[in-house]
Amino acid sequence: MEKLRVQGWLELFTNTQLGCSVPDLAEFYVDCKVTNGLVTSEVNGKKLCFEAKKQGEILGVPAVGFDVYVR
Predict the structure, then answer these.
(1) H/E element holding 48?
(2) pTM score of the predicted model
């Protein structure tokens, strides 16, 4: 929990008002790839593709270093 707080991600996982679906989030990360700053994945049969920076904006979290997590 402390690592999530320091990274700025704790609110995403603990604020139930944000509507974060843990199963959908898990599915997103299973298929997630970052190539040249572009994030791709698939959730519920829908293909997702966006810039890593945009993910931070969508989720309201820092996006710096995201590509390191999903190598």
Answers:
(1) strand 46-51
(2) 0.60
